[in-house]
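Quick look at the format.
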Amino acid sequence: SFRGGVARPLCRNHLVHVDKWSRMAMRRNQRSEDAAAKEGEDVRDGCTDVDDRKKVSREVRVAGDPWFRGWWGLDLRSVACLRAVLAFLLLVDLAMRARNFKEINCDDYLAPTGYSPHGWIVHRVLFYRGGVVLQSAIAVFQAFVLLAYLVGYRTNVTAVLAWLLTTMMHGRNEWVNNAGDKVATTFLFWLMFIPCGEYFAYNKGVLHRPGVKYASFATLCYRMQLVYLYLSPMYLRWSTAASNTWTWAKANAVYYTVHYTTATPFGMHVVGKYPGLCKMLTRVAILLETVGAVLLAFSPSQLLQLLLVIGFWKLHMGIALVVELGIFPFISSVSAFGLLPSSTWDTKVVISILQSQPAILLAKLGCVVGKAFEACFGQPASDQKQGKLSFLLERWLAAFLLIYFPVTILGYLGLIKQPDDGNLAEALRVTQRWPMYSPNAPYSSVWMVVEGKLQNETYIDLMEVWRHGWANSRKRWVQSDWRPSTIKVERPMPTPHAAFPNVRMSKFMIYSMQVGEDAKQGRLLTRQFVRYMCRQWDEKMKPGKDNMPRLLTVSVFLVNQLTLDPDSNPPSLYGGVHAREHLQGTW
């Protein structure tokens, strides 16, 4: 017991303390669950009628650490929903990365051999790239772990493995990551400390189970993380002089964003045609990311919290329509699902969705997958009480992190000096740098032109060969008179993003086009990219066979085009095209 309460296990390795005010509610819920079980309802498959739902008490139990008891808690059904959706999105991202598996994960492709922006020995061990066989084995193991995490198999173990393996995947090649990868690892970290396998798991019930509101230091940190995720870029946008944040001060940030390199055709050619609409969307985004973020995390009203979760989901889905950012808008849109209020799960709409035929089929499929994991790795152990030593360690960890992370955040904002230069946060992959178009939205588009000189004194556009695929380009080269010989510096159509094969490769190219303080790293990545292109030419195009010429020299040009101010009534949207040589070499 603790402070007069009684101790009951909620799930493995978690000690639940129930105070005297919730003791009677627990007993009523237990009697309701026993009565429902006697009536023979099939909880696992979710094959019960909607009318039977009324037989189960809708009261939500209160559980967790008494230090954090109150409205800091999260409904474990919402947490389980976040776990399942996040695991599914990471599986999709893992499959998409497989298209450029060698380039992303292995040494001496796009990533320079032995080069890493991380200095700690821990980072160099965890983020070791190596060869194709090693990385393939790690990727297969990661897919199995994410699948087990999705169906709720041993979540106390798979949650840690999912965070660790995802962190390793993102750290091998920092130059292909986007903000969505950072959001994923951050929320995976906090989910390790929350029992996320109590609902929507293969061996738990999908329906007819009363909710549990769990409170701990991790639930508090989860709420604070959501707030800082949105307030941090807003602080960077408004803390500097107005002349440095003029795209936001004039409410033109959305306009410049939809004309940037990563814009989608819909964003550039539909939304971008209406500057007034872009101004309105900018103001809505500012309001939602400031006032909305605080109310989302700390609002006592369940209805307002539900509306804000839906609002942020729509915000990020709108971002996905106008800007090509990979998994970022999808990961960010579901990151607030853990704040879905308890009343949401008792509505007729949600109950009908969970009892629909597709939901039942998914539950049965998850049960099959979970049983397969049980057959291979054994059944999960029965629920156990958390030991006193483990409980005290969790308390000390909570106290440390609740002090360390605010200090780290203030350090990243430049308000204080970080005591460890952020090394611990970098090791845990929960660094709190969230620029997100801060302090200014990008007001010019950039793309790269790679010119190759062949043995027969002709010039070709290597980027066009890369976009079409090496095998397809060689086939067209041999079977027809196709030659990508016209070097174009004009703006790629329909958007500058069309100059890159996919989102991951475009992110790498944007890093390689860095100038100013990061010019040294940009030129290093550009040299590595040129080496990669030359090796691919020798391996895929097979010079000397079928009269295929050798590649002699490569020149890289950076092309920049300014987006004109919409308030100045310009005759055209864009300024002139400026190209300058970034790198030239002979290989």
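Next, a different chain entirely:
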Amino acid sequence: AAAAAAVVSSASSTTTSSAAATSTTATTAQTDAEKAGLDLSATGLASQSLPSAAVVLVLTTEDVLRIRSNAYLATARETTYLSVGAGAVFDLAGNALPPAVGTDALLATSFVADATPPVLLSAVLTTLSNRLPLMLVLTFSEGVRASALLSGISLSMGGAVVQTLASGSVQARSDAASSHMLNLILPASLTDTLRTLGLTSLSSDVFVDVAADACLDMTGNGVSAARLAVSISTSIELTPPVLRSYALDLTLNTLTLTFSEAVVGASLDATAIFLQSDSGVPRSSTQLLSSSQVTQPQPTQIALTLSDRDAAAIKALPFLALSRGTTYLSLRSGAVQDNVGNMNANTATLMMASTYVADTVGPVVVSFLLDLTRRVLEFNTSKPVEPTTIAVSLFTLQSAASAQPAAQFRLTSGSVTALDVTTKRTFRIVLTPTDTASILRTPNLAVSLATTFLSVAAGAASDRVGNRMQAVLPSGALAAVNFTSGSLASITSSSSESDGAWPPWMLVGIVLSSVLAGLALVALVVQLVLRRQENKKKPQAFRYKGGVEILPPTPPLPPRRSQPFAAHQPPALPSHPHALCVSRGTSSDQLLATQTDA
């Protein structure tokens, strides 16, 4: 008997799956068969009565697993072919069996399908390459199909079911080399739940329950029901990083965050950072919108360089980050993750800055444009500036960037407006007609883009904390980024309106409005006088204490009628002059008094 390599093929083709095996001939003695390690009794035939042409191959456990893990191999007689290579089998005379490979592979004459259900052997909770999310690795007695994963697998911790893993809630993956291992990628929500319950590598009360037929092997046999304790991998670490402190430097425009453990700087989401002026209802607050650079001085620290936009937003607010006591930060969950993949949770309370460096850098003008037609000079600054501190008289136009330019003109006055009230970095100066005319009359000054430069004296403005504006020296004067020329004629025609002087048509309107208002007032006075005189002719009434009203004498009453008064009429008045008649009213207890000349 010669050791041979037998090949089991799923079709009559050259694609094969090797299976290591041991062979023997039927004519060998029982002792030889035992020596080869063959279980001849498993065939149901006595070893001494085997025909000489029969060979029994007892497959190893590894080979069985590999065959059963293939969804297309040996699932029925039609998918079971045998290939035998040259020199694999010899007869007793030493003649080699002709090879049967490829299209010559032999179809099985008899086939007994796998009817043994897979059994769950072990369960391990781990991570993929030491990174979240969590992965539950289930090992079965044979290959199972990840695509046939059904509901009926659940995790429990502390005696309570944490979550049932439905087919749509997990990502099932089978290792191609060993499909008897099923990897279930758990959803993030389950990871959060296990983290809340305190899962660690030392946990011992986690179990997995697999219902019958929860998953299938390659031939469709459902798994047997089982309950196993879950082994927790030492690679699992579910503690989220926590913000411990932070430092804000408004001179360098940096924000340094310090966490409870090592974090991944590249994972930082700057938009999850909020700054506000108070620990309660804030007077000023802002959200970071971007970051220009992120570095890690230490594994537990992230240094964030604020973008110009974020730095300007902070420095433009009136109450925010003026001191350590007006600097509070909150960090939204999911802003950063540790080396395993745990995301930070919400900061429990607003945190005051542990280190605060005030802004000590003064602003500076970085660009400008000039429009002499509209009499406008617009400029941008490097940081927010308070509009009320801008001194127009410290701005000088010059014909070149030189300490001694050929022509220059220093502005005298003008109205200032902030074009961006949020960042306070863009401003407009409306020039006076006098300054505009002087600029136009100055030879070689502001006649083109090449002859339009701006220098600014130190202290021309201040930021919110009083840092004075830095100078733009004449030798380093800024060139205009845009220029529009003007004319003296246009300046003269528009000066009255632009300076606030009223044009003639507006003056006429004001005079007419004043005259009409005066006439209306006279008419009102006359009406009041006439009404007062009319009221003097009417009887005047006065009131005694207790609410009794006394009326002045009235004209004589007509003679008394012979017939009696109706029940609702008051009694007849006496004829005595100035008599006082008091009667009780019908609708109230108020006493009415009437004075009359009978």
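The chain has a mean pLDDT of 79.

See the schema section for token definitions.
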